[in-house]
Amino acid sequence: MKRLTVSVGQEDAGRRLGDYLRNPMGCSKRLVSRLKNEPQGIMVNGLQVTVRYVLAAGDRVSIAQGPVRPLTMPVERRPLEIIYEDDFLLVINKPPQTAMYPRYRGEAGALSGAVLGHLARHGEPLGYFPHYRLDRDTTGLAVFAKSAWAAARLAGQPARKVYAAEVFGQVPAAGSLTLPLAKDVGGLGRIWAHHAGKPARTCFQRAFYTDDRLFSGALIYLPTGRRHQIRAHFAQSGHPLLGDRAYGGPLLHHAHPALHVPYLQVAHPYDGRTLSLFHPLPASWSSSWPPAYRKEAPYVDYLTEALCRCASPAQ
Question: What start-end ranges are recorded for coiled-coil regions in this protein (predicted)?
Fold first, then answer.
């Protein structure tokens, strides 16, 4: 089993192991609890010890990097488009019409099966730790931790994502949608604006609109993360996503909601450095997008602006 090992510095001598696992190692309370119950889950200098152990300078603290709970999802041999991979992270281009999780135990076809299959082929511990969820038909960059420890480190540092969308009509040059969102009482799984809903804020910037003003392209940043937030907010503003039949969007040239994650920044769980990752817009999208948007620079610029203009969630 793969392990993560660090050496204790003089500044941490005299601390209890449990405190050290939380900070600076970044283990969550839940992860520490699970590791305590796993054989050789937590070791110091090659010996299994309790979290009450008092550390000395030079001690080597080691934790298991494998899964710490039984795997209940199928492992499948399906191809993945890998954008980035190392010992701690896997980043892929998520295809459309693919759910992140199976709907029921043993169901095939979810993204989880393909990720687990990739790990199995390369002799990696089998664990499924998505950093965030994307809707079934949303495409683009999806980040996965390769261990519970890496997942715990990522949990405190959300990825900064830029979405791209094609929406009905001509949207304003830039704006912010702040309607509170709640589940549809009709039980159809949709999300709608409601005064008693959860605060939500969707910031956007128009990239183009067609000459006939039939549809627009937009870049989007979310200070909040609600279910179907982008789809619900744009539908409520009169500009549903193309292909989004659930929210009244016309199909035009899309068979599913036109929503993609082309760019993100995420702090690496091991050393904290910022990873900037990019994947172009789908080839099936409109040729009306200006050529610059086929490259990374406009998304970097928009994220920089959005982090200043949209830093705080809706109140």
Answer: none
